[in-house]
Batch of 2 targets.
Target 1
Amino acid sequence: QLGLKTKRLGWNVYYEESVPSTQKIAHKLAHDGAEEGTLVIAEEQTAGRGRLDRSWHSPKGTGIWMSLILRPAIPPQQAPQLTLLAAVAVSQGIQEVTGLVPDIKWPNDILLNGKKAVGILTELQADPDQVHAVIVGIGINVNQTREHFPSELASTATSLALEAGKPVNRAQLVQMILSKFETLYDQYLQHGFSPIKLLWEGYAVTIGKEVVARTLSGTVSGVALGITDTGTLKLRTKDGDIHYIYSADIEIKK
Ligand code: BTN
């Protein structure tokens, strides 16, 4: 029913009315040997999960809540590259279908007019030297109206429809994103991360800005210089020290 034009991604689709979390289902399927490209997508999630153990608000019939299983032959250290690849695929898809130009905030938030419209959660099943499966969870606020957002999200979250001023066809957007994803993923497997990195930088709002990075081990402020070849963020503090940030919440200073 999705009318996909991709060759591999999304050929095996589990479409559900209501699930706790597509991410959880995809983990189980991957563990049981599901092939690369398997997609779990739901109309509603009752226990959607975000990064850093947060919950992800996923009301019925409004958004795209999906998890994609990939099986690239890469060491686990390279997996963050796939988060950035996913952010580029979703940004390209949104741009093509709605005309809106998204901003990517490192590592993987997609913003429209400074508010979050998309969250990406990349999780691994891996040994220390080999990835078995990458589960890319993508949550897109598509047709929510203001009333759909709980008050604590009102000032920070938005939907594509709110920004575009009209409803957006979800099936068309899923098709477009998977097709962009497949092209980028093939490029990545053949030529590595460099071409993806360039595209990512084209959408990035973080680079060159004064930022505060809150990590599990503390807070670092400085100028975001760029991303490295593995996808980590390079920061320069005002003392001139260089920090490499693997995972953090980023606040962009005005
Ligand atoms: C974040 O920004 O914190 C990431 C949010 C990821 C949400 C998606 S929705 C589909 C998939 N299933 C989940 O439970 N989470 C991800």
Target 2
Amino acid sequence: MSPGIRKRITHWFSGSLPLLISIVAPLLLGQSNQLSGERAFFHAQRIVSFGPRPPGSAGIKRAQRYLTDTLKNYPLEVEHQNFLAMTPNGEIPMKNIVARTKSSPNDFIILASHYDTLLMKNGVFVGANDGASSTGLLLELAQLLSSQKWKFSLWFVFFDGEEAQQLWTAQDSLYGSTYFVERLQARGQVSKIKAMILMDMVGDKDLVLENDTTSTAWLMALVRDSAKELGHGRQLGDTPKAIIDDHVPFLRVGIPAVNLIDYEFGRNNEHWHTPQDTLDKISPKSLQVTGEIVLKTLKKLSEKYFQVGSSQQ
Ligand code: 1BN
Ligand code: ZN
């Protein structure tokens, strides 16, 4: 083969690679009625491939397109919640992405993750664990759960603007979840939300989910019982920690909420909010374990409110 032709083929192949991956990978990974940590990890890889994703950036726009295009393949109604956040860095356009099951039950359960990444000026921060891991898992849960019949409506909520623009304070953080809860209040929907389950930093190869005391106690007990019953008790932290995250705006208006978070990322948290938050530190296995705990917790919630679990359609 002449060098010219080889160059043209190489050029075509590298330009078309992302497109090829997006066509071939779902075919290889498929969709199924079993939770797949591998598929969740694949989504996380795609999200990381878009680069840093601070609010308003080119990277977050690519992530928004990916989330929307993926969710539209499932039997869900997808809404973009656009808003302008007042931040110490000025007004920034942000977007929560909300996907709801089409069934009509009057009680809702929210599963959530943030998909933005920390703004880092002196380094490249792609948030494989902090942003992509829980978002990949939430996409996988959306695929799985939207094809099952539940007694409550399930909302899959992807928050923008979880991270601070400058320094984490009550005002400079949690922009997406705060706006989302304001909309719930304006629509009179607060009392319909039976529970909110947040996932954050759930990809760490050495997964230890915190005993977060900010979370609603009975809901955290449900999560921990679920983990133990599944044989994942070793993935539970014992030391009580009070963590402020996207579940807090929900707690403030009386919605039961729980945070599944591993806040010890590397020894002494050395990878957290650093350029070392990369794909090699996270695993499909941790996403599988967290996903199984969420599924079991959902079954327990179903039993608590309706004395039943789910039934396949
Ligand atoms: C989680 C991931 N958070 C920020 N990125 C929220 C948080 C802040 C959790 C401080 C624990 C401590
Ligand atoms: Zn963070």
